[in-house]
Amino acid sequence: MAELDKFFNYMVENDISDLHVSSGMRPLFRQYGELKPASDQILTHDVVKKLLFEILNNEQKATFEEKNDLDFAHELTGLARFRGNYFMQHRGISGAFRLIPSTVESLDKLGFPEILKTFAELSRGLVLITGPTGCGKSTTLAAMIDYINKTRTDHIVTIEDPIEFVHISDKCLIHHRQVGIHTKSFSGALRATLREDPDIIMLGEMRDLETIELAITAAETGHLVFATLHTSSAPKTIDRIIDAFPAGQQSQIRTMLSESLKGIVCQQLLKRSDKPGRVAALEILVVNVAVSNLIREGKIFQIPSVLQTGKQLGMQMLDTGIMKYYKDGIISAEEAYYKSNDKQLFEQFLEKK
After folding, report:
1. H or E stretch at 122
2. Other CB atoms closer than 10 Å to residue 352's CB: what's the count?
């Protein structure tokens, strides 16, 4: 067993999400959003390199030596997968690992609203899962793919870097492709996927203009496309997509997006105050005729008012979800304030303390 595998086993047994191994530092775990020492030993560059390289194959070692960066997945068979990133920094080599559970939690078990199942039941269109790094986007996407796998008979192609949750084909045929191993780029894989008779395409990330454009086109041409972005609200997600294009193309993209976008789920993970763990607060935008018209006309600033009045359609603002958690005693006022978009909503609760 590799030395790092001992850390990985401990992570699985103690509900730890991340491990950081850095030259010149103690190894650190992240548990429920907070970093904690995993050992008292200060690790030298040589020790860290030995630890990190022990779980790599020769090709991965060569890639890191050439680029000083490496994304990959490491698996403990039957236990869990770990998304790894190696990088060089001023003290030397370092690695960050994220735990990917071996089992996929269902939408019901995650406590997500029924509208996410509605998104998963669409026949075509673009559905975006957004939020900051480490907010659980991959877990949400995996739960939606799992729901589709158990309820539909479709061909699903996932394009990721690296592959995270591995789905076993149930009612669906599922193909996982990893950038850098099975394909050279997200855009190249997406272009090829359109010739592979897919019904559903899952993009781990829309990283560049070409990938965004291809994803919108795929949704327009009769595919259901799921993808992620690092944005903090539904309106900002739409602005980010449109602003990625040159000014001369933005009018056309607004029209395409208004027709293809079906929903946005923006999430934040919040530390619980009632017991150990974290909960996900969601902002949910359902793209109906009103929202579609606002996108086409470039009136994105009016979307928050639609979110506020669209509860009967399954819509919700992020701060509404956060407020409910606070009033139910699940999170603290400080956590609510820190993770909210509108800080003024929660200032009054901080002042009372």
Report:
1. none
2. 6
Place of tokens 């699940």: 330
pLDDT digits (tens, 9 = 90+) for 39-73: 999 999 999 999 999 999 999 999 999 999 999 99
Q: Is the dihedral of CA 286, 290, 293, 295 positive or negative?
A: negative
Closest alpha carbon to 98 in 31, 159, 38, 155: 31
- Of 77 and 5, more confident: 5
The pair of three-digit structure tokens given for residue 301, joined into one six-digit string: 């600033």
| Identity of the residue numbered 311 | K
Ordered by where they begin, the domains of the chain are: 3-101 (3.30.450.90), 107-348 (3.40.50.300)
Among 303, 121, 294, 130, CA closest to 203: 130
The pLDDT tens digits for 17-29 are 999 999 999 999 9
What is this structure's pTM? 0.90
In a 13 Å sphere around the CA of 209, the CA atoms on its Cβ side amount to 9
Give the integer Cα–Cα distance in Å for 109 and 112: 8
Listed residue (176, 178, 168, 167) closest to 84, CA to CA = 178
Closest Cα to residue 119, out of 268, 265, 253, 293? 265
pLDDT tens for each residue of 85-115 = 999 999 999 999 999 988 899 999 999 999 9
Where would I find the beta strands (DSSP E) of the chain?
A: 18-22, 28-31, 34-37, 69-76, 80-89, 92-101, 125-130, 155-160, 173-178, 200-203, 224-229, 261-271, 278-286
β-bridge pairing 155-160 and 173-178:
parallel
Tokens of residue 135, six digits: 């907010």
CA pair distance 51, 3, nearest whole angstrom = 7
What is the structure's pLDDT at 134? 86
Tokens, residue 248: 């001369």
Mean pLDDT of the chain: 95
Q: Counting beta carbons within 10 angstroms of the beta carbon of residue 76, is it exposed (0 to 12), middle (13 to 18) or buried (19 or more)?
A: middle
Candidates 37, 39, 49; CA nearest to 94 is 49
